[in-house]
Amino acid sequence: MLLLESLPTVIGAAAIAPALLVLWLVIAADERPGPPVQVWLAFVLGAASISLLGLARIPFNALLAIPDNPWATQAVRAAFGVAAPEEIVKVLVIVAISTRRRAFADPMDTVVYGAAAGLGFAAYENLAYLVQHKDMWRALAALRSVLTVPFHGALGIIAGAYLAIARSGGALGAYRGHRDWARITNWALVLVAPVALHAAFDFPLLALQRIPDLGSTTRLLLGSASVLIGFSSIGFAIRLVHRLGKHHAPRTDIARERLSQLRRMWALLLIGGGAGFAGVSFLLTSLHHWYV
Predict the structure, then answer these.
(1) Helices 36-48 and 253-291 meet at what angle, rounded to 10?
(2) pTM to 2 decimals?
(3) Angle, nearest 10°, between helix axes 8-28 and 253-291?
(4) Which of 116, 117, 123, 141 has its CB 3.0 to 4.6 Å from that of 14, i.e. a possible disulfide?
(5) DSSP code of 189?
(6) DSSP state string for 116-178
(7) Cα 126 versus chain centre, distance
(8) Residue-wise pLDDT tens digits, 17-74
(9) In angstroms, rounded to a whole number, what is the distance separating the alpha carbons of residues 41 and 89?
């Protein structure tokens, strides 16, 4: 047996590395990154929030039983069985972390916390998928690192961005007209936007899995739609990051140098965190094998 195949550490590293890379890209867009403890706490709580999915699904159980219509069944399951519970637990983490922010905090801090929560969730989910499919973990890791992991991070970014816009109001150009309606809309979009995009992404995939008698053309269209929605959501999240980030772009050489130093610090923190995760996994695996 190959060494790589015998070490769960490799699978763990493959699961968490894409999430850490995307988190680094988001942090690099922030001129004044928030406290590292807050970001790591958001990442860990985002992963731990998966344990709350059972509770989050309880209010929607009555909506999931729609007989005699497979398309409606998959649409409801995508919206209320997958998207709503997952986004609710992630938004709860983002709100909980961002309420502890500093009084002078950059609105981008909330975006970073959203990305960290979403990517923590994605890393844990990614690890579960790779462990369940060890026979094809390489291909699955490559596929999920390109789309699924950044997609979860993008949904967290979108929730965090709308939360920052709703809190900051006119400072970010959110309330130029119809102030009251814009305020209500932005608060609603904190949850509605991620849920809608997540449901739209999952519906074609669930239809492909659960509806067997689909033609090849229909399958191609469904797969293409899911990929298009996933990458469009990532692009939309990038747009929101630029929208918030441009209000705090460095304007002097000293500020740019300070930003460069902060980025290097965060790169070392993320590399160190990933190495620590891999090292702990290897240690626990070795102890388990020795004990057995």
Answers:
(1) 40
(2) 0.79
(3) 170
(4) 141
(5) H
(6) HHHHHHHHHHHHHHHHHTGGGHHHHHHHHHHTHHHHHHHHHHHHHHHHHHHHHGGGGT--SSS
(7) 11
(8) 778 778 877 777 666 666 788 888 999 999 999 989 989 998 888 777 666 788 888 8
(9) 15
